[in-house]
Design brief:
eight-stranded mixed β-sheet; alpha/beta; four-stranded antiparallel β-sheet; 16 helices
Amino acid sequence: MSKEETFQDLSLNSPSGQQDLWRWLYTELRAAILDRRLKPGARMPSTRSLSAQYSLSRGTVVAAFEQLQAEGYTRTEVGSGTYVASGIPEGFLSATRKPATPVGTASKAAISKHAQQFLKDVEVMPAPHSVGKAFRSYEPAIDLFPVDLWARVASRVLRRAPRSLYGHGDAAGYQPLRRAIAEYVGASPGVRCSAEQIIITSGTQQALDLISRLLVTMGDHVWMEDPGYLRALQALRNTGARIVPVPVDEDGLIVKAGRKLAPKAKLAYVTPANQFPMGVTMSADRRLELLRWAASANAWIIEDEYDAEYRYAGRPVAALQTLDSSGCVIYVGTFTKMLFNALRLGFMVLPERLVDAFRSARSIIDLHPPTLDQAILAEFITEGHFGHHLRRMRQIYAERIDVLKTAADEHLNGLLDVVHTGAGIRTLGWLKTWKSDRDATQKVRKLGLEVSPLSMFTVKYEQPPALMLGFAGCNPAELRRGVSILATALRAR
């Protein structure tokens, strides 16, 4: 029996109705090669005989043969024909057809022990299929974002953009955007900086990751507000830092406690304008005390101002960075909470001596931030749309916290004491009849609401049971509906 006749005895699966015929033939022949039904060195049939046998066009068979040769499964000898390649390893399994008895040993390669340690507490946030759901705490009022205006700005930028904007970008970020940010943070929270001190990041999380990588060595002590921002804790812990939970009171982080616990800590993470999640503002005395400690300990301070622009009485609080005379504060901001979640653009304001190192590190991670998105945002800011949107949102969010507080006082009296916060996009509700905020959260989530227990943000210092409630992204009707459901859930013990 000839080699070609041997091949004709192979049973090939019938093609599915949705599959291209050339791909079906390629897949079946590849499976036969990998399963050793076609031995290395065996001569393949002619394209003419295959066309006749399976009622295929010559072009279809040629396309399948060309793909097999391109991927190294076959070789062609001029004047002789096409042969199965000899170098395919024994036991290499087909992705489409597994042999009855697996050959070889499954790989035992695994992620590192260090990664296993820090990943065990990481919760991946699922992509929501709706907006404005009570009481989602991380979402601004996406439904009120001026999409048409953004689209017009984007269209104009894309039409007029020089071809250089489609090329390799600056690792530090688009220069016009950095200038716009320097003017914005200088006018509002009073940050003192030039455009050259700004590094554009993919949101706050990348900024925290960069800071952790460059400024923290494994084993370094790091002060962390307790309770505090969980993803900052995870970013710092990822580098092998020894987290030092420092308690928080009505004046913010208790610096004296930090000095007692770890006087030579390398870094402190704080949210001074609107402490996450307690919502308090760090007092002037504490700010000065924290800066004095950092200067004496040669430590760094991360000032995370994730939603500092949203204050509903008076002007935004001046940044801690404005008081820094020793150059130890790194100011971190984001546009995610101020515009919309999908805009993964944030920034750091760095002391001048850190700029070159961070620019180099930023280039290693992903070369540079997306230039066209930066160009659109730069125009959005410089044309005044950003400032107008913030002013409008301050008014709307102030109205929404009023709605939430009024509805809570009416329907949740004796069950949940909702704080009438003066800043931010979320608040706390102190539980009155539940001892465990995690049990209450589980009960409430079963009814479709999105709440978080305060205890999930604590490390060492326990707090009374409370629920985190987002209000900025919910319209008044949804807030009232959410309060009604909350009342039902919290009454049903």
